[in-house]
Design a protein that fits this description.
Blueprint (H helix, E strand, L loop, with lengths): L16 E17 L2 E10 L2 E8 L4 H8 L7 E11 L2 E7 L4 E3 L18 H14 L3 H11 L2 H9 L13 H19 L5 H10 L4 H4 E3 L3 E3 L1 H5 L2 H14 L6 H13 L15 H25 L6 E4 L3 E4 L2
Parallel strand pairs: 3-5
Antiparallel strand pairs: 1-2, 1-4, 2-3, 4-5, 4-6, 7-8, 9-10
Helix pairs in contact: 2-5, 2-6, 5-6, 5-11, 6-10, 6-11, 9-10, 10-11
Length: 322
């Protein structure tokens, strides 16, 4: 029987008693402390992450049995208390507290990984509309090779746009991609000398590597490819591989598409191997940054739990709430 989750990480307070489900992102093996053995778990839900520590007895086998009773990616039911440690909240559990792996039919996956708040079918229609508006046959064939592929689209629809920041939910990549294309379309209406087909193609493909960068189970995590290579290079490789299969695709046009993908973070210090050298590349970079930052700022404002007229964030500083 599915149980409704009622305690979410971003709402936990110091001293609060915890009695709820959480997803396990990773765990660290038991280590000794003055009272016995303890281990650490990183927990998550749709609102964020928090560290939990289980303070066990001096019986190492007993603590190991509890530690081995669940794995990364599982959902566990725990009891404990929220404490503040080095300016961070964490959950403290002891031998008398519950720690139990729960079965799949006991929880709602959307409590742990949120879904796109928009109508996904409508967003997909908008995506197809942009593809249909591209008149260059080579770029149209490239877009079709990705987005008319049902297997790829299932992966693309499920992918998040980020792990923690903007549109970090199932369907987030689809939403973000269409938003970037919309912004680029407006930019083109102001600066019509840009190549619209190249601009829209770059917008739709700029984050394509995120399909391989993230893994979604009971949480959003970075894949091995994402950690070691990253979505920018992965995306460039995916696109160039498709281009090889398309007859007569112009070499210079392929380089321009690759450049937009490689430069869309704008600066080397932000992960881009190249900085934008085409107006279309600059437009995609600015549109990508605009959608990501505005989405995140709006979310921070909506989630602010304070009576103050502002909230302070690490990324933006102060955000006015009134």
């Amino acid at each position: 029987m599915v149980r409704k989750k009622h305690q979410f990480i971003n709402q936990l307070k110091d001293g609060e008693v915890v009695n709820d489900f959480f997803a396990v992102k990773f765990k660290k093996p038991p280590r000794p402390y003055e009272g016995g053995y303890y281990f650490e778990i990183r927990l998550s839900d749709m609102t964020g992450e928090i560290t939990a520590k289980y303070w066990g007895s001096a019986d190492r086998k007993e603590v190991l049995d509890i530690y081995n009773s669940f794995s990364n990616g599982d959902v566990i039911h725990i009891t404990g208390v929220v404490v503040q440690y080095r300016d961070r909240m964490e959950i403290s559990m002891h031998t008398q507290d519950l720690l139990r792996r729960v079965s799949r039919d006991e929880y709602n996956i959307e409590d742990f990984v949120a879904r796109c708040p928009k109508d996904v079918e409508k967003v997909k229609d908008e995506l197809i509309g942009f593809i249909d508006s591209v008149t260059n046959p080579h770029l149209k064939a490239l877009l079709d090779s990705f987005f008319r592929d049902e297997t790829f689209m299932r992966e693309f629809e499920r992918a998040p746009a980020a792990m923690h920041y903007h549109q970090n939910y199932i369907g987030g990549l689809l939403e973000h991609t269409v938003n970037v294309a919309k912004i680029c379309d407006v930019i083109h209406s102001i600066h019509p000398k840009m190549e619209r087909d190249l601009l829209i193609t770059g917008a739709l493909l700029h984050d394509i590597g995120k399909v391989k960068e993230f893994e979604v189970t009971t949480s959003i995590d970075v894949s091995r490819e994402g950690m070691l290579i990253g979505h920018i290079v992965l995306g460039k490789e995916m696109v160039m591989e498709k281009i090889k299969s398309l007859n007569g695709f112009p070499d210079l046009l392929a380089l321009k598409v690759a450049h937009i993908i490689l430069s869309h973070h704008g600066k080397n210090t932000y992960g881009s191997p190249k900085t934008p050298q085409l107006p279309e590349a600059m437009a995609v970079h600015l549109a990508d940054e605009m959608d990501a930052k505005l989405s995140l700022m709006i979310r921070y404002r909506e989630e602010a739990d304070t009576e103050d007229p502002w909230v302070w964030t690490k990324m933006f500083g102060h955000i006015f709430l009134e």
